Amino acid sequence: MKYILLIQQGSTPVPPSEAWDALSDEEKGEIYAAYKAISETPGVTPGHGLQLPETATTVRVRDGETLVTDGPFVETKEALGGYFLLDAEDLDTAIELAARIPAARMGGAIEVRPLREGY
Amino acid sequence: MSLEQVFREQWGAVLASLIGFLGDFDLAEEAAQEAFTTAAERWPRDGVPANPGGWLLTTARNRAIDRIRRERTLAAKTRLLEVPEPVEDPMEAIDVSTFPDERLELLFTCCHPALSTEAQVALTLRTLGGLGTDEIARAFLVPEATMAQRLVRAKRKIKSAGIPFRVPPDHLLPDRLAAVLAVVYLIFNEGYSAPPTRGDLAVEAIRLGGAMAQLMPDEPEVHGLLAIMLLHDARRPARFRDGDLVLLADQDRALWDAERIVAGRAALDRALALHGDGAYVVQGAIAALHADEPRDWRQIAALYGELSRMTGSPVVELNRAVAVAEAYGAAAGLEIIDRLALDDYRYQHSTRADLLRRLDRPAEARDAYERALALVVDDAERRFLRRRLAELDPTADQPEGPSCSA
Known about the structure:
Chain A has 119 residues and is α+β, with helices and mostly antiparallel strands.
């Protein structure tokens, strides 16, 4: 089974921000180490880290007209922070990996979605 | 044993084996349905086979294999999987010992935390209990179409999200077992707390609990839950008199199911022998003490204290208050209740009312009964509370509502 693990940052401190700066070097180090370990886990294809939701631009086409708005499609605090792709035996494996992603315990959440097969 | 009983007994195990074999809920369910339909036609004519489960399973497997073949041919798929040969005569070729009992795998799949609790309950009743969608819908007071939709979505999620069909590995087992036990207990309580018409759910939960105890003999909490259910269910015949709720203290013990009580005590003994001290085991011990005569209220109060520390549940504290009131006086019980914040919980008010009545504080008792009545949803409970309220003041008019002859 192939899954995407969508990282919803929620209130998780992310750089650049004051909340992130307030973390100790040790805490920052643990977070980087956790993300590195996950990226190196067999079956994981690391996604790209995303810049802050504030930098997002949302595009819609209505009646042939392109409408551009500032900000993410969902509310900023619900915006995607990053993702991993995972090839795993089953959902339990995906849940265990998701639980290791620092954002899951730091005020965010991980949405685990199976990918469509055969498209 | 009637055909219907045989079907109820066999459905869960047959379906579990089929899902394990086919890896597909819908295909397995259709095949099982066909096999049971065939059996309903043939068995009355030819007699029930010596091994009904094996017969049903083999027949269902053959149907499923035929169907897979047909679909393969129709779709002309080149990617051929190994499809076993159907067994020619199900009467001959069965050795049920070669079919592993996969009911536990099925139970853990149905109660996976990635499914909503409602879906877990519905799926468990449908697959392991063999209840029809209409029966489950009635039991949970939702339209049949809603229930059907719930089941379809749950099965689709199991398949598309990759929820595994297995007993979880050791590091996941405690959490997942707790989820399964919670579902079984929820089913039991739905059946037990409602008037006798929905008692089938309680029986179904006990059947599930019994199967779990047999398949996971070393898990004390499984035996603990089974003990709770058996001991409570034993009192079910005495809980209602002419449709009215009868409190434990007023129940006619001759109506209790002695066999159930013996079985419940035996389940508790097994749990204790396994050094169980979890929340279900403690509740089972409390239920066993309630079956004693006279009841040891101090011991009951102490066990509720333990349970309260374990769960932090105010509802447990409320039960402790009742036991404390019996053991040490109504005032001591009331003191506990007045510390609780369960304003929307009718039993807080009805229990408080009862203690106030015993403390001869009728005005406060009346207020508390009124508050309980404002929250009550069940007719039998409503009648009970109105009776109590009327007893408080014998000069008051009889309350309206259905007449009670108790």
